[in-house]
Design a protein that fits this description.
It is built from 3 helices and 11 strands, in the order βββββββαβαββαβ. The protein is of the alpha/beta class and about 200 residues long. The strands form 3 sheets. Strands 5-8-9-10-11 form a 5-stranded parallel beta sheet, covered by helices on one side.
Length: about 200
C-alpha cells in the first residue's frame, strides 16, 4: 500500500510518501509519490518505535506465558511500538529457558513485534541490585548459564567490574550480542597524586 502525506524523515517534516509490504515498511521518501497513492493520510507519518526494555505491560509480565506476551504485543503495537525486547530480571533457569523459547518462536513470526530478548542480570552488583533477587545473582567467573548465550538474546545488561565480566563481554561481542553496563558498583572518586594536592592549612 502506498500512503501519501506529511512524513517525518531525516529530521524534517515535509510532504512525502511511505510504501508498505504487508506489515513492513518497504520504502519511503519526501516529495512526490512514485505513483498515485492508495490513501492520503491526515497528520504526520512517523517512524515506529523500538523499546529495548519491556519487563511487562498492562498488568502482564513477560514471564507470564503466551497469553501475557499476546497482551503485551497488542499493547505495544497500539502505542506505536513495532519492535521490542521482552526483558527478564535475573531469572531462574527454568523461567529463562521457557521465556527464551517463546521469544524465539515470536521472532520467527513476521507479524510479531518481538525482536529478541534482553537479559538484565544475573550478573549485577549485589550491593546495587534493586529488585533483582539476591539469591539469583552470579558472577561470570562463577559460571555462565547456557541460556545467556541463547540465539534469541539481543542485549545483556551486566556489571562490568564483576570477576569474569570482561571475558563474557568479549564472548557476547563475538557472537553479535550487545551488552550494556548496568547497575555496577560505584567507582571510588580518584584522589589527586600527593604532588598535586593542595597543602594542608
Amino acid at each position: 500500500m502506498l500512503l501519501a502525506g506529511a512524513i517525518a524523515l531525516r529530521g524534517q517534516i515535509a510532504p512525502g510518501w511511505a510504501e508498505t509490504d504487508g506489515a513492513r515498511l518497504a520504502s519511503c521518501g519526501h516529495g512526490r509519490p512514485p505513483r498515485p497513492p492508495d490513501e492520503r493520510v491526515d497528520g504526520v507519518l512517523t517512524p515506529a518505535l523500538c523499546d529495548l526494555q519491556v519487563n511487562g505491560a498492562g498488568g502482564h509480565e513477560v514471564a507470564g506465558g503466551s497469553s501475557a506476551l499476546d497482551a503485551i504485543d497488542a499493547l505495544q503495537l497500539a502505542h506505536g511500538v513495532t519492535s521490542y525486547l521482552p526483558t527478564l530480571i535475573s531469572p531462574d533457569d527454568e523461567t529463562a529457558e521457557r521465556v527464551l523459547a517463546e521469544v524465539a518462536e515470536r521472532m520467527a513470526d513476521p507479524d510479531s513485534p518481538v525482536a529478541g530478548a534482553h537479559l538484565e542480570g544475573p550478573f549485577i552488583s549485589a550491593d546495587h541490585r534493586g529488585v533483582h533477587p539476591f539469591e539469583r545473582l552470579r558472577t561470570p567467573e562463577g559460571g555462565v548459564p547456557t541460556w545467556v548465550e541463547h540465539p534469541a538474546v539481543r542485549i545483556v545488561t551486566l556489571a562490568p567490574e564483576l570477576p569474569g565480566a570482561l571475558a563474557l563481554i568479549s564472548r557476547l561481542h563475538a557472537r553479535g550480542s550487545p551488552w550494556r553496563s548496568g547497575i555496577p558498583a560505584p567507582m571510588p572518586t580518584p584522589r589527586a597524586p600527593a604532588s598535586t594536592r593542595e597543602p594542608a592549612s
